[in-house]
Specification:
Length: about 425
């Protein structure tokens, strides 16, 4: 993907393929019923949707944007945005407008021209399968951006890069993240006698909080060298070296038995191919009387098989090799490979939309520091689109986030705490 940006439209007129692509995209936008899109071009303005609906303005700076959308669907639209071919004052609103019209979004992604590109995207994604070596490379592509970059816009207290729980109006991001961590501790009934295994360390926020507030011992594992280094530093700064061990290790290579296991939004990096491998390992690691809590971003069951074969903006440019699971995919995987049973399941996708809004606003507020790190405008636009794309998906309930509490066959559990 080129990183060139276009501050003004090209002087040459649109080519025949571009004009045809524009017509195809307009055909797919025709009949919008819940939102109103105003398309502003140098040559004029077109409006789609009823006048009384929420209105969002898209400014197309270069007609090549239409070719990108026609050939690449929502992925092409994202690429065109990164290159500066189009803009919107309310990017989340535009994403919601399209995501809210399921048929229109599906049409944009399912046209005959997009079919020409899908095989190539699928091959590129397939080359990023999550073998041990592939997983290390895929994770490095994201987290090697550097701890200082993520520290700019994640909350200072926890540095959690996952959905917070906004349980009352007016909660700050930090309060919502701490509320979520406290709830996880209650759900797992953590105490000083427990040895907790965390699969997917992040930057150590959960491990430090659990050890500090419940007195449990924690072993936490990551394959990101960047995250491992900062997690070790944060454990040391908290004075918890005797309670928390941070491993640089693939989940498939973990050994031993643990009283409790937790894994927060790591399963998305496993990939569909290794979902049963993941749950089988979890089943091996937890004691028969133990508990497991998994937080996962989910997509609808009905669209899972299609999503596994398709490549969207996030899989192409943000999390290579990733795949959000569906509830049916996860329940099938753990039922075939373990004797774990489901105790509790809840979705709080609206909390992720709010979390993403906070991240997006904090990211925008820290752009001078982002630029000072040497990141260019294309990088900034890529991350702006990523955060808006995800926020819109959660606001329109195209994806959710769940916490699943599983129990070993010998677990004796009390009623679940709130």
């Amino acid at each position: 993907m080129t990183t060139s940006l276009l501050p003004f439209p090209r002087t040459a007129g649109p080519s025949l393929p571009t004009r045809l692509a524009r017509r195809l995209v307009f055909e797919r936008l025709a009949g919008l019923s819940r939102s109103r899109l105003v398309i502003e071009e140098p040559t004029g303005t077109r409006t789609f949707g009823p006048p009384e609906a929420p209105t969002f303005v898209v400014r197309v700076h270069d007609p090549e944007a239409w070719l990108r959308m026609a050939l690449g669907g929502s992925l092409g639209a994202g690429e065109a945005y990164v290159e500066g071919l189009w803009d919107a004052d309310d990017l989340v609103g535009v994403v919601c407008a399209l995501a809210g019209e399921v048929a229109k979004m599906s049409a944009l992604d399912g046209g005959r021209l997009t079919a020409l590109r899908k095989p190539l995207d699928a091959v590129l994604h397939g080359l990023r399968r999550n073998s041990r070596e592939g997983s290390r490379k895929n994770i490095a592509r994201h987290y090697d951006l550097g701890n200082d970059f993520f520290r700019l816009w994640l909350d200072e207290a926890t540095m959690m890069y996952s959905a917070a729980r906004f349980e009352r109006e007016g909660m700050t991001l930090e309060e919502a993240q701490l509320s979520r961590l406290e709830r996880i501790g209650r759900q797992l009934e953590l105490g000083p006698e427990d040895h907790l295994l965390e699969i997917g360390t992040g930057w150590g926020g959960l491990a430090v909080h659990a050890a500090r507030t419940t007195g449990c011992r924690v072993t936490t594992a990551t394959i990101s060298k960047e995250q491992h280094a900062l997690a070790v530093e944060r454990v040391r700064a908290a004075g918890l070296e005797d309670r928390v061990e941070v491993l640089l290790r693939d989940y498939r290579d973990l050994e031993g038995r643990y009283d409790k296991v937790v894994s927060v939004e790591m399963i998305e990096a496993v990939g569909a191919e290794f979902l049963e491998t993941y749950f089988a390992k979890v089943g091996e690691l937890v004691r028969p009387e133990g508990l497991v809590l998994i937080q996962a971003i989910t997509i609808p069951d009905a669209g899972y098989e299609r999503a596994v074969k398709n490549v969207d903006f996030v899989k192409r440019y943000i999390f290579p090799g990733g795949q959000c699971p569906s509830l049916a995919a996860m329940s099938g995987a753990w039922s075939r490979t373990t004797d774990l049973r489901l105790l509790h399941l809840e979705d709080f996708g609206e909390g992720y939309a709010e979390t993403l809004r906070c991240w997006r606003e904090r990211f925008e507020a820290r752009l001078p520091e982002v630029r000072a790190f040497g990141y260019d405008e294309a990088f900034i636009r890529l991350w702006r689109f990523y955060l808006a794309y995800c926020e819109g998906g959660f606001r329109e309930r195209h994806c959710g986030v769940v916490q699943m509490l599983l129990a070993g066959p010998d677990a004796r559990v009390r009623p679940r705490p709130a």
